[in-house]
Design brief:
With 549 residues, the chain is an alpha/beta fold. It has one domain (3-540). It has 14 helices and 24 strands. α5 packs across α14 (520-548). The longest helix is centred in the last third of the chain and has 29 residues, at 520-548. It starts with a strand and ends with a helix.
């Protein structure tokens, strides 16, 4: 039976950063475990390879949601394996805004305001492109680069934003403003994906005080007299127990972290009783407050710029792959969303409430009775898809186990249309997307709107016969909410689980409210902030331990 100072559960965006920073101290023994695999496929490192990786089930957790209203159950897919979501996502790099973190701080979470989080972001990132805002980090291990893909339609997207009155930003992560600009990605200057594993763990994996293992699923946390003492795990069908003389930190994400707590008897009493799990510590907020960024998508045919379409649908695709592996970067080293717009929703230009991404793609030829968005290799028509995210929705969902079996999928509930304010905001996003499409700059390139596939929730209140789907942005958060009140929160501002010792949560699930942008960068920052808090506590207790000995 092995014993460690700290056990980190989940080698994803937050967990890898946390384990790296804890293991920077040679006297600290760290175990990092991951349920998934090593994610060693060569397409993981290739930015454009994520389209192929997305078709491989071993790289994702799949969750089918409870049916909501009159639509079919939605399926959520979250990254699995070394790097978690950061190994398989679109690499779209967005930091949270100052107002996001000031809202966290004023809700009773000291140490999580903008000054703290700006410093943490800066310690992680290395962004050196022209026009970088003064708040950006330049020497961190995570290289961030601006989109290098340019074409006439990309230039038209930027011009369209200016026509709509948005400032054209050299740094789309400039705080306290709306604007339009070239997207940024966690792609390094050699054209490789920067996952949390490849950046933070792989270079130091040989450290004698760091043990990293994959293919290990947590069955439950052993809690004795109110203190987390170890983990009971499933290692390929064999039960394995790991002990800690310090702390266990869950960094398994917005679905798995509350699931593990509930499997361990920590959570809402009624949920645990229904699932047949003995109650160890009642904590009603575990699995509540699940947040996300609802996403609206609209696709238009592209009439006058087939450059990217040709790259994907002819022999050029194979040439680009060869070019990439010869070290010449090129098209396969670029991100999928070349242009980002951050827009106010309700007039507050300092705190954008809508994020738009504009993506050149390909669609199937339209049949008279259907128009289908397709990623198939034989797609024949170029198009532009607009992705619109509602950044601060009212809707919240739940995560609940239904069985004591760790292999069983938890029940997830989320209804995008439950709140009238959200429904109105979805309609505003549709309106803004269509405004973009009608600008002088873009209307020269865009043709007809492509009807979406059926089966999604759709936007109400839109004065058009074309239904617009609403779906998950795959930015899950909040299900182990941070806050001072054990009645409504799961962890305190030190990320300690309320009422228990030796147990913390450090991933996107602790967000009190969603950040205004993609969550991956902030998940990494949460991992880094957790390391600061844990090491500071260790330093405070070290003199006491020495005196006791």
């Amino acid at each position: 039976m092995e014993e460690f100072d700290y056990i980190v559960v989940g080698a994803g965006s937050a967990g890898c950063v946390l384990a790296r920073r804890l293991s920077d101290h040679a006297d600290v023994r760290v175990l990092l475990i991951e349920a998934g695999g090593p994610n060693s496929h060569p397409f993981v490192a290739m930015p454009r390879g994520f389209h192929r990786i997305s078709a491989k089930p071993g790289y994702f957790w799949e969750y089918k949601l409870r049916p909501a209203r009159d639509r079919a159950p939605e399926t959520w897919r979250y990254g699995k394996g070394y790097g978690g979501a950061s190994a398989v996502n679109g690499m779209w790099y967005m930091r949270g805004t100052p107002s996001d973190f000031e809202a966290w701080r004023t809700a009773g979470n000291p140490g999580w305001g903008w000054s703290d989080m700006q410093r943490v972001y800066g310690s992680l990132e290395s962004y050196r492109d022209c026009g970088a805002h003064a708040s950006r980090g330049v020497d961190g291990p995570l290289q961030v680069t601006r989109s290098v893909y340019r074409s006439p339609v990309v230039e038209a997207m930027l011009e369209a934003g200016a026509e709509m009155g948005l400032p054209v930003l050299e740094d789309i992560n400039q705080p306290d403003t709306e604007g339009v600009g070239l997207s940024q990605f966690s792609i390094d200057r050699m054209g490789r994906r920067g996952s949390s594993y490849s950046v933070f763990i792989k270079p130091v994996k040989a450290r004698p005080n760091l043990v990293v293992r994959h293919g290990i699923e947590v069955k439950r946390i052993e809690i004795v007299d109110g203190t987390a003492r170890g983990l009971v795990c499933d290692d390929g069908g064999r039960e394995r127990i790991y002990r800690t003389r310090g702390e266990i930190i869950l960094a398994a994400g917005a679905i798995q972290s509350p699931k593990i707590l509930q499997l361990s008897g920590v959570g809402p009493a009624a949920v645990l009783a229904k699932a047949g799990v003995p109650l160890v510590h009642p904590l009603e907020a575990v699995g509540r407050n699940l947040g996300d960024h609802p996403m609206v998508s609209i696709t238009f045919e592209l009439d006058n710029d087939e450059k990217m379409h040709r790259e994907f649908t002819t022999y050029r695709l194979y040439l680009r792959v060869l070019q990439y592996y010869l070290g010449l970067k090129g098209f396969m080293a670029t991100g999928a969303v070349p242009v980002t717009a951050m827009m106010s929703d309700g007039g507050d230009t300092l705190w954008p409430g809508i994020q738009l991404g504009m993506v050149p793609i390909a669609v199937e030829d339209r049949h008279p009775r259907r128009g289908i968005l397709s990623r198939k290799r034989n797609a024949t028509r170029p198009a532009v898809m607009f992705l619109g995210y509602l950044l601060r929705p009212k809707v919240r969902g739940t995560v609940e186990i239904a069985s004591p079996d760790h292999r069983a999928t938890p029940e997830i509930a989320m209804d995008w249309t439950a709140h009238s304010e959200d429904r109105a905001a979805h309609a505003r996003i549709v309106h803004e997307i269509r405004r973009f499409a009608r600008t002088r700059a873009l209307s020269a390139f865009l043709g007809a709107e492509v009807p979406p596939a059926q089966g999604h929730a759709s936007v109400a209140g839109v004065d058009d016969a074309v239904e617009v789907p609403v779906a998950s942005g795959f930015h899950g958060n909040g299900s182990c909410r941070m806050g001072p009140d054990p009645a409504s929160d799961v962890v305190d501002p030190q990320l300690r689980v309320h009422g228990l010792k030796g147990l913390r949560v450090a991933d996107a699930s602790i967000m009190p409210t969603p950040v205004s942008g993609n969550t991956n960068a902030t998940a990494m920052a949460i991992g880094a902030r957790a390391a600061e808090l844990i090491l500071a506590a260790r330093q405070r207790t070290a003199p006491l331990a020495a005196q006791a000995s």
